[in-house]
Amino acid sequence: MPATARSARPPVLTPGRPLYEEVRAHLTEGVAAGRWKAGEAIPSEADLAAHFGVAIGTIRKAVDSLVAQGTLLRRQGKGTFVTAHDGRRLMFHFFHIVGADGAKAYPEVRTASFERGRADAAEAAALAIVRDERVIRIRNVLSLDGRAVIVDDITLPAALFPGLTERIFTARDNTIYHLFQSRYGINVLRTDERLRATLASGPTAALLGLPAGAPLLEIRRVAITFRDRPVELRVSRVNTASHVYHNTFGKGEAI
Amino acid sequence: MPATARSARPPVLTPGRPLYEEVRAHLTEGVAAGRWKAGEAIPSEADLAAHFGVAIGTIRKAVDSLVAQGTLLRRQGKGTFVTAHDGRRLMFHFFHIVGADGAKAYPEVRTASFERGRADAAEAAALAIVRDERVIRIRNVLSLDGRAVIVDDITLPAALFPGLTERIFTARDNTIYHLFQSRYGINVLRTDERLRATLASGPTAALLGLPAGAPLLEIRRVAITFRDRPVELRVSRVNTASHVYHNTFGKGEAI
DNA sequence: AAGTGGTCTAGACCACTAG
DNA sequence: TAGTGGTCTAGACCACTTC
Fold first, then answer.
1. Is B52 exposed, middle or buried (0-12, 13-18, 19+ CB in 10 A)?
2. Strands, sheet with A229-238, edge to edge from the N-terminal-most edge strand
3. Alpha carbon distance A92, A106 (integer Å)
4. Between chain A and chain B, how many beta carbons pairs sit less than 8 Å apart?
5. Do domains A19-82 and A89-245 have the same CATH topology?
6. Residue of B nearest to A216 (CA)
7. A45 touches A80 (CB < 8 A)
8. Does residue A25 surpass a pLDDT of 70?
């Protein structure tokens, strides 16, 4: 069959852009809409090819990009699955504090406060909501190697997290992004971070056991899901006396 | 022709791993060895397919990964080129300081000192050289919007940069990584960064016009080329009063 | 018109997982 | 043994660049 003679396909694939992009968009929509939930398998490549009326190679190209993006996960012989945020996957995808020697460390989290309020101007701008919209504010203290090292101030749009209580929040046995996903169907796709150096003061200094004037690394992170929707604002203050923020650029594997 | 009946191919492709990985390794080797220089075109996909004795689709898969890695660059209708570090490509790939409002800014660079010396223990460890090996130390002051904001202390293994003088270094009209590439054939593939918060003191404070005790963001970066070879150690100290370090994780494009 | 990369097809066989 | 993803082929046509 020549490449141009496409057979009839149930879902309308609007022309103008490559088929694999159409397929990719449909798959992404399916995940975002919860048609396939985190950890579940999507249909086999052969089924998808039949469903969309395209060759299996086109399906593979679409799935490839979603695997690269982190939305899907392939397991040879088993199937293709929606990525689940358990198993510490995003733990280290989005947590970049390591020991000064580069050793990874799992933080121990304690929730210091959990309150409801209304968005101020900065929060509203970061979360793409209107001012005075309801938000949830959480303060966590993270310890590494038994010492308090990080203070996290988290702001969530309350509308996205109905029924979230301190009890539910602290009872989670996994990362916060896993909670987002398992309870609210929110997949964090990417984060945007801005880092500054500041000086310790007030309650933050006290929580970290530091004198006023000690240097702190401040990380202002916005977590983003499908359709560029911000779902979380998190301001972290890190004592970098014995831990550092670690980061690599470029996907170059050795030859 | 069935998939298993491969025709004779001049370069021996060792079995055991996928053909496209073999091809990828050969292409990477060619770039690393300078067979095709930065900005030059590699052979066409059809030529490569004939040369390696594989299908064009296999070549495409190998090239795809090198394009994703940033080593190669495709231009439809023209060819596939070795990425050149001019045109500010790596400028913003590896320079992450932006205005507090997120606006990109081009730094103005002034070289404050250029000296030769011998590696101390920390430099030797970071650059994978032996202690007391010859190094070049450069101190740059970077200004954004007319104000000194960053002090860079750069350490280079002298063996990798023969004949590098302050005159050559400061005469460059482009980024330092472009100089690495154009004069020494060194392609920076990736960087490893560790960030801490520190306090301003001594000459750094003076260069930035800050009082002692002001908070500074310290970035310790190692630049890495093929075969995981470190080629540069750079310690940057950034005044984040009106600029921030910006960073995103996750390649998620909107649906 | 010729040459390049970009998309897509149809089908083969291999490697892994499960019943 | 059946079903899944992983690799690879051979060839078609399209879109872009250059002459």
1. buried
2. A108-118, A134-144, A147-157, A229-238, A215-225, A190-199, B243-249, B97-99
3. 9
4. 145
5. no
6. B197
7. yes
8. yes
Using a pLDDT cut of 90, give the percent of chain A over it. 68
pLDDT at B90: 53
Comparing CB atoms, the residue among A197, A247, A254 nearest residue B228 is A254
For A150, which DSSP code? E
Separation of A180 CA and C15 C1' (Å): 36
- Give B150's Cβ-side CA count (13 Å radius): 30
B28 — phi, psi (to 5°)? Answer: -60, -45
A192, A193, A252 member nearest B190 (Cβ): A252
Among chain B residues, the shortest Cα distance to A194 is held by B246
CB A255 within 8 A of CB B29: yes
What is the mean predicted confidence (pLDDT) over B220-234?
93
CA distance B50 to chain A (A): 22
Q: What is the predicted pLDDT for the residue at B5?
A: 34
Minimal-distance CA residue of chain B relative to A94: B249
Q: Is the CB of B75 under 7 A from strand D?
A: yes
Q: What is the residue extent of each domain of chain A? A: 19-82, 89-245
The reported pLDDT for the residue numbered B36 is 94
- Residue A122, H or E segment: helix A121-127
Distance separating alpha carbons of residues A191 and B252, to the nearest angstrom: 10
Q: Which residue from A190, A216, A247 is facing B252, i.e. has the nearest CB?
A: A190
Specify the amino acid at residue B136. I
Q: Could you give the 3-state DSSP secondary structure of residue A221?
A: strand
Closest listed residue to residue B219, CA positions, set B199, B241, B202, B196: B196
CA A50 / C1′ C19 distance in Å: 26
pLDDT level of residue B94 (50, 70, 90 thresholds): confident
Over the stretch B116-157, which tens digit does the pLDDT of each residue have?
999 999 999 999 999 999 999 999 999 998 999 999 999 999
Give the distance, in angstroms, between residue A50 CA and nucleotide D8 C1'. 22
Residues 6+ apart with CB under 8 A from A223: A94, A177, A188, A190, A191, A230, A231, A232, A234
3-state helix, strand, coil in chain B (%, to 5): 30, 35, 35
Q: Which CATH class is domain A19-82?
A: mainly alpha
Coil, helix or strand at residue A217: strand
Token pair belonging to B18:
């996928």
Read off the pLDDT of each residue in B29-52 and give the average, rounded to a whole number.
94
Nucleotides on strand C lying under 7 Å from protein C-beta: 3-18
Fold of A89-245: Chorismate lyase (3.40.1410)
